[in-house]
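Entry for the shared binder. Reason: the reviewer on the internal report wants the predicted structure included alongside the sequence.
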Amino acid sequence: MNEFSASRAEFPEATPFRLRGVTFRNRVWMSPMAQYAAGADGLPTEWHLAHYGPRAIGGVGLVLVEATAISPDNRCTAADLGLWNEEQALAHRKLTSFLTGHGAVPAVQLNAVGRKGSHQVPWVGDGQNSPVPVADGGWELIAPSAIPFGDLAMPRPATAADLDRIVEEFAHATRMAELAGYQAVEIHASHGYLLHQFLSPLSNHRTDEYGGSPRNRMRFPLRVARAVREAFPEDKPVFVRITATDWVEDSITLEDAAEFAKELAAAGIDLLDVTSGVLVRDRGARPPNREGVNVEFAAALKEASGLAVAPVGQITDLAAAGQIIRWGKADAVLMGRSLLRDPYLALRNQPKDAWPVRYHRAF
């Protein structure tokens, strides 16, 4: 028995939760996990409905759709979802309508990839370590500084005009998310993507107003946060996936993350999706393999900022989820691999009446 799996007489993970005008039926939420199932047009496919639909039927309170590109040159792969035009937004409506119709709040994670783009899907060649050159259908990469990620292409340093464009692309993608029917949006500022690259001194060597001190390094992510919050309806929440540490010496610290969290609160952000690591490949900086690895980080950031928090990473079962919430360390939990294995995990502690009526014959 691990520290999170104590027996319990109640199920706090099953209680409703509210942010702005949106109510989540419970606190077991589906983490965004890239499927690499879109076409080059960025449109969702039948796979996305078949993948996300059962988790809504299976009782999660929120389905957070995978990292979705704000522009064609901000994709990881040519199979990433996109929300940079109205055609894509309207195509997402079938998915959001289904999720809403089965009781889950539909949300989408918006992403700009920076130096971690233009690579193969994970099951082709060396996967995420296989660059796709421009000559073979790839695209130019930009980043805070000319520092590549592993074997991927060398990015060029982003200009002021690039940064202005990306802020507007985030705002436009947010408006497209609202058109698509999403009830919440999340800004991806972790796992080594563009906004995380600006936050970390390992990937940001700039000498202008966007580099150097922690306050300068958070300047561009905060511009994005303000633009997204302004573009999304006032009664709907905006999340940020935030990194608590890079797990590498001389990089982002929990204190840095806490200062960023306070600024996000001032910008009107509603919830922090708390994670860590995955900024660098060559230094082996991966989070340690332990249950609830980011839970204590989430609790610290909640206390520092006053924001709602939802940790992700190695939260494996409902016992863990319930204990985390009972102890007040988080307001919800984001579960990934466990929901890949069991789409109905959120219903496992619930009575027959909580299950879809078409499944009652199973009891």
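Summary line for the report: The longest helix spans residues 160-180.
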